[in-house]
Design a protein that fits this description.
alpha+beta; 219 residues; 7 helices; 3-stranded antiparallel sheet
Amino acid sequence: MAKPVVLPSITFKKQGDADAFFKALLDRYDDDEYLGSADEELVYELLQRHPESDAKIGCGVVGIYRGRSADHPSSCFHVHRDDGSKTDFSYKTCVRGSSPSLKARFYEACQRSIAGTVATQKKIMFETAGGEIACYKTGMSTTFTTSDYRHTHPRFRDVVEGFIKLNKIVVSEGLLSKGADMQYSTVFIDPAMVDGFIDYHASVAKLEIFKRYEIPSFS
């Protein structure tokens, strides 16, 4: 039976689809080249599935880049941490990773909190613009169905970290929903936490329209 790979921003029906997608993403870059902000957010979400995600992320991530490593026969993704240290990781290990960490689940709950608001904002933008908007990165024309509305600066993970620090939140299981049948996303138990993040996000976040990546068709 195929195992889906569910990230906050994108879902793959099976692991092979995710492998192909992130291989193609890696191949778009040269060695020692840092990922663009939109690509980095997707890979950061993937990294949270790594069995050693807490250690890989460490004190925080400055950026993610493609590089060579003595431990890998070919180029792979690397993390550049806030303290200047660097480490590599395999996207295939992430795709097949274990259950998301507690911090990753909190991150997902934050995303779910604003999903409806962000979707409504995007819809209004396209209606106001007459159905087409230029991609923030490439300038190419996009429509509602061929685009994503993504964070630019600050990055979404920085928004989440800012929310935690401002409210002195101790991330714990008690804040988050438990897994249940037909529940694919982690959400906050307390509606006040949802409202709090929505308000904080609205005060600091900036998003732009990007042309959506085309996911290859798989037989």
